[in-house]
Amino acid sequence: MHVQEWLETVPAVAVYALVGLVIGLESLGIPLPGEIILVSSALLASQQGHIDPVVLGASATAGAIVGDSIGYAIGRKGGRPLLAWLGKKFPKHFSEGHIATAERSFEKWGMWAVFFGRFVALLRIFAGPLAGVLRMPYWKFLIANVLGGIVWAGGTTAVIYYVGIVAESWLKRFSWLGLVAAVLVGLTSMLVLKRRAKRAAPLVAGE
To answer: Binning pLDDT at 50, 70 and 90, where does residue 114 land?
Structure first.
C-alpha cells in the first residue's frame, strides 16, 4: 500500500505521532524515510480537512529537534566506538567512506553542517550523533538544530501543503495542466533549497 493511502486510514492524532516519531528516529541516527512520511502527510493534509498542517508541521519540527538532541547525547557518550558499531549494523549508511565525508563537512562548516544537514539525506542521519562524537559545543549544536528543524520540517510542510491546495484548485479548473504546473512549482522550490544545502555541506568524497 502506498504511504499516503495508508495514512488516510489512520486518525489525525496517529498521523501527527507517526510523523514526529519517524523523523525523530531518523534524526537520532536510524535510517528511516522521514522525508517521504512528511511529504505524504503534508499532501494528505491539503486534501483532508481533519489534519491540521500547523500541528503536523509542529510535530515534525519537534521530532527533528528532539531526535537530533538525543542523537547528539548518544554520540557524545558513545564516541568513535559508536560509529564503528553503526557501521556494522548499517553498512550502507554508516560506511567508513560516508563517515569520513560527513566529518570533513563538519570540520569545514561546523554548526552549519547541522543546519544544512537537514536538507541532505545522509547528513540528516549523521548530524546529531556525529556532532556529539566530535564534541561540538552544545549551544552551537542546539542553535543549528532548532533553526534547521524549524526551516526543514516547517518549510517542507508548508510548501507541500500549499502546493496540494493549489493543485486541487487548479485541477478543478484546468484539469491536468494546473496539477502539473503546481507540482513543478513545488518541486522547483524544494530542489533550489536542496541544491543550496548541498553546496553549503558538500558530500563529495575527497573534497
So the answer is: confident
